[in-house]
UniProtKB/TrEMBL annotation:
Protein name from the UniProt record: Putative glucosylceramide beta-14-galactosyltransferase
Source organism superkingdom: Eukaryota
Keyword Aminoacyl-tRNA synthetase: no
GO-annotated biological processes: carbohydrate metabolic process; glycosphingolipid biosynthetic process
Length: 178
């Protein structure tokens, strides 16, 4: 350590701060502590937020059995899979399990413009991911017109207002990107 009159030199302090910031950024890029819930604690950590529509179906489990621990990322659009997914999704992008009543209601908002392949890959991954959790969910694609600059925050706000009109019972909103 370099000392100047009993103090650390400015050069040494700057080097130390850069090193500390680099290590912190690598450990936690959002600057917040990560929240990790072990699978064994999942039942205690997941809360129900039932959909308000009446139904005689039994409740879906909060944590379905057989959820995959790892889902590989496919980098090519599978048009057949997308067509199959589209046939099972209700108009407006809503899906809910047919054999049980979901205990969570979710809305995913996605601002979009000019990235058709990215959007297709996103939908190809997100629909099976959300369906495996037996959620009542809707995905809103909020598209920016070509005549205006892309404004992600404004699209999120518009999507949120529109989703509340359709899905006022949703208790979780995910603001996503493609």
């Amino acid at each position: 350590m370099k000392c100047v009159e009993g103090r650390f030199s400015m050069e040494w302090l700057m080097t130390f701060m850069v090193l500390l910031l680099t290590i912190s950024a690598l450990r936690c890029p959002t600057w917040r502590p990560s929240v990790y819930v072990p699978v064994s604690d999942m039942e205690e950590e997941v809360w129900a937020c039932p959909v308000s529509e009446p139904s005689t179906l039994p409740l879906c489990p909060l944590v379905p059995t057989g959820l995959p621990r790892y889902v590989g990322v496919k980098r090519r659009v599978n048009q057949t899979l997308l067509e199959h997914i589209a046939s099972e999704v209700e108009p407006g992008g809503r899906w809910r399990p047919k054999h049980c009543r979901a205990q969570q209601s979710l809305v995913v908002l996605v601002p979009y413009r000019d990235r058709a392949m990215h959007l297709a890959l996103f939908l190809q991954h997100m629909h099976p991911f959300l369906q495996s959790q037996l959620l009542d969910y809707s995905i809103y694609i909020v598209e920016q017109s070509a005549e205006h600059d892309f404004n992600r925050a404004k699209l999120f706000n518009i999507g949120f207002v529109e989703a509340l009109k359709d899905r006022g019972d949703a208790c979780c909103f995910v603001f996503h990107d493609v």
